[in-house]
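[stage:ingest] chain + small molecule (iron/sulfur cluster)
[stage:ingest] validated
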Amino acid sequence: MSETITRKLMLYFPKCECEKPIIYHLVKDYDLIVNIFRAKVTPEEEGYLVLDVTGTEEQIQASIDFVKTFNVTVNFSGKGVTRDNDRCTHCGYCVPYCPTDALIITNGATREVIYNEDECIECLACVRVCPFGACTAAF
Ligand code: SF4
Ligand code: SF4
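[stage:predict] done
[stage:export] tokens:
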């Protein structure tokens, strides 16, 4: 019998795919244990889900192939997004697009936008929306 493993996945749902019961199928059809620990819908109604899936390598791969048929992008977290602090104006535009707490605005008079790399799941939303090119991807 194949070994059971756990993978962390980030799923990006385009606007039209947000309502589909994909997670239900991962559990029912692919016999995976799913632990959702972050979910967010952006102002443009795109959806992000960060989850752990536990099952055999074959089950997980089959489920990823299934998910991709719905035009859903699957990322494996690997820390490739950086922010250039010299370019960042702390405008805050990226913050509502970030599906995790990787980009947050500090309270207080300075109102700085802090980038916490440990929380980043490389969804690339900030890379797309930053007007100043402060966020870049290494891939
Ligand atoms: S959108 Fe760009 S410039 Fe504005 S706070 Fe975010 S990273 Fe900084
Ligand atoms: S890529 Fe940018 S928007 Fe996405 S999680 Fe990382 S910091 Fe947040």
